[in-house]
Each structure stands twice: as structure tokens, then as C-alpha cells.
Amino acid sequence: MKIGILSDTHGRAHTAARAISLLELHGAEFFIHCGDVGDFHDNGSDVLRKLPSGKTAFVFGNNDLNQVELREIAAECGLTCLGESGIVELAGKKLAVTHGDKGKVLRQLLASPIDYLFTGHSHTPHDIHAGSIRQINPGALHRCKSKTVATLDLKTDLLTFLNVEDR
Questions:
Q1: Residue 44 in contact with residue 37, Cβ under 8 Å?
Q2: Closest Cα to residue 149, out of 26, 14, 11, 13?
Q3: pLDDT digit string (tens) for 17-53?
Q4: Are 4 and 132 in contact (CB under 8 A)?
Q5: How deeply is 122 buried, as exposed, middle or buried, from its count of CB atoms within 10 A (0-12, 13-18, 19+)?
Q6: Less crowded by CB within 10 Å, the N or C end of the chain?
Q7: For 2-163, CATH number?
Q8: Contact of 23 with 55, CB cutoff 8 Å
Q9: What is the DSSP letter of 132?
Q10: 158-163: strand order across its sheet
Q11: How far is residue 136's CA from residue 78's CA, in Å, rounded to a whole number?
Q12: Which residues pair with 96 in a beta bridge?
């Protein structure tokens, strides 16, 4: 199974739609959004409406201010809201997701029996192996030099960063 990972869309629904299309083109079957769906100017509701129904999980970031409304929209759209963090099990793997802005949450997840930890927040893509846990940040789709997302094949462990073109 191949998953698509994105983060830090900050309400940019058109950019999110391009990113999702790119991830689908590269075979993503399930999607994880690592937070900051919205920001101070846009709550992110249009971003949530672009995410594939029934095959997306997301967490709140430090800029997701109206979490009650975002939870309601997620439910309407068939998305799984994990709150500030959560664990998704796919293809026999445990995938932990949090935005990455809370050290205590990161430490708790890293102490859990997980295979992967997905974060956002820094707007910088990374792939770090810490013991048996692989930590992945797909980058960002706003306020960054290059807009990036990633695919991860859970069977082969192949991670691919993808550039999302500006239009």
C-alpha cells in the first residue's frame, strides 16, 4: 500500500488539490495530512473538502484555530480527524501522526510501539531514522521555498518526495 503525505497547506485549497492529484498520480491510496490545514486567514475547510473521502486521516496544527468546525466538516466529508495526534494502522504498520509543534506529544509517540512518525510544522522535508522508528516530514505547501509532498510505499519502505509546481 502506498500512502500520500502532505502538511502545512494553510488554507491553500488550490495548492492542496494539485498536491493530491500529484500524489494520486504516483499511486497514493491513503492520505495523511500532518496539520495546519488552515491558518489565521482561512480555517482550512476548503482544504478538507479536497481530501479524498474515506481514505484520509489528519491532525490539527498550531494554526488550526477552529477545531470544532473542522471536526464537523471532516465528519461530513468522511475524513478521520485524529485531534492533535493519533495512530493509524495500515498494511500491518503503525503510523503515528502529529503536527510536530509539541515536544511532549512527540516524546510520547516516540515511546510508543510505532513504525513511522509523520510530522509537519517545520516546513522542511526530512527523513530521519531514530532507532526502529522512521520520522518523516513531507515539507509544506505554503511559506516554503519548494512546495513538497511525499509518497511512502509501506511494503517496500520506499519514500519519494515530490515537488508541487506553482501555477
A1: yes
A2: 26
A3: 999 999 999 999 999 999 999 988 888 899 999 999 9
A4: no
A5: middle
A6: C
A7: 3.60.21.10
A8: no
A9: T
A10: 80-81, 56-58, 30-33, 2-6, 148-153, 158-163
A11: 25
A12: 87, 117
pLDDT tens digits, one per residue of 57-98: 999 999 999 999 999 999 999 999 999 999 999 999 999 999
Helical spans, DSSP H, in the chain: 13-25, 45-50, 67-77, 103-110
Q: What residue spans of 10-161 are helical by DSSP H?
A: 13-25, 45-50, 67-77, 103-110
Identify whether the C-beta of residue 124 lies closer than 8 Å to the C-beta of residue 103: no
Q: Give the largest CA-CA distance in the chain.
A: 41
Domain range list for the chain: 2-163
Give residue 167's pLDDT. 67
How many CA within 13 A on the CB side of residue 84?
12
* Alpha-carbon gap, residue 34 to 7, rounded angstroms: 5
Give the containing element (helix H, strand E) for 152.
strand 148-153
The predicted model gives 143-160 an average pLDDT of 96
pTM: 0.97
